[in-house]
Each structure stands twice: as C-alpha cells, then as structure tokens.
Amino acid sequence: MPVEHFLTGIPPLLVYVTVGLVIGLESLGIPLPGEIVLVTASLLAAQPGLDISPVGVAIGATTGAIVGDSIGYAIGYRYGTPLFERLARRFPKHFGPVQVMFAERVFRKYGVYAVFFGRFVAILRILAGPLAGALGMQYRKFLVANVLGGIAWACGTTAAIYWLGVVAEVWLKRFSWIALLVAVGTGLGIGYAVKRKTERLARRYAEEAAAEKAAAEQRVEDEPAEGPATAR
Q1: How many angstroms separate the CA atoms of 23 and 90, rounded?
Q2: Cys-Cys crosslink for 127: which of 103, 134, 150, 151, Cβ 3.0 to 4.6 Å?
C-alpha cells in the first residue's frame, strides 16, 4: 500500500504517531523510509481538504528523531562495534563495510558535527546513534547535537515540503503543469547529484580507511617481537 494512501486513511493523530514511529525506528538503526514518510505527511498537510497539521507532523518527526537516536546510542554503547558485523549480515545494503567505514571515518574526523549534519545524509541518519555510542562519544555532547540536528532536520524538512505543496497548488492555478514539472525535475536532479556525491565520498573514505587499517596491521607485523633478555 502506498504511503500516501495509508496516511490519508487514518486520523491525523495517528499520522503524527506514524511519522514519529517510523523516523524513530530508522534513527535507532533499522532501515526504514523515514524521510519518505515525513515528506509525504508534509505534502498531505498542505492539502486544504485534509485535517493534517504541519506542526503536528514536525513535532512527531522531531520526537521520533531525538528518541530514536538516543536509543540507538544506548544500543551502540552497550554492544560496541561488533554490533555492526551482525547488522551487516542482516542488512548488507545499509550496514555493509563501505557504509560503516564511511560513517566511522566521518565520526572520527568531525565528532559531534557528524551527529548534527548526519541527520541530513541517508547513510549517517541510520548509523549516527548506534555508531556514536559504539565509538564512546560523550552522551552529553551527543545529546546536544542530536536534539539540535533533529529539530533542524524535522522542522526544516516539514516547513520546506509544506511550503512547496502550497506553492504547487498556486502554480497549477496560475501557470501550467510544465512549470511544475520543471521545478520538480530540477529538485530531483539536485537530489540525485547529492546522492551520487555522497556515494563516491563513501567509497573513497572506505578505501582510505581500509588502506590505513592494512598499513597499521603491516607495521605491527614488521615490528620485532620484544621479550625479556635471556641470561647466559
């Protein structure tokens, strides 16, 4: 069943709960279409015939993002990096070596900034909470970045998509389908370019991380074994 049909068939309160639940599970580390649900709910809120509030959608998304990431942090802190090896066997597309190495390198390089800005990147959105906990990031710092990132992403996305939905109706009345298709095509093109750039960056980071790991292992093997001197 398409997301739009499901959301229009339930009361507004359940729409907000569904948005928060799906985003919370995604933030916890389960690969679900949280962003698709948020965008769909925001577009539905822009339709005058439905009683869906964009504020309710934003509150549900923000709550799910913050709570989900916090639970993900606790799980990662409890089980450590071996958790990702088990997840890779179950979700190889989302927790494969390339994705995990990319996320880990970003986190080690940027710290709490990766938590904040990772909310806007699909790969990091799933891995942020569990990986921050597994790498031992201070929870106080994580929580601040998590709250601010969750608010910025959830409220910003809801507002932007809601505004786009309202403007689209005006365009359809004053202009033509061609103008709307051009605008949508431009947005999809930008989104595709960003996705391709992220994928290339992920592969590059993964290759660099693998090379550094291999070099470190080689240095350990090359070091002479040091033992206690044997008296003659």
Answers
A1: 20
A2: 103
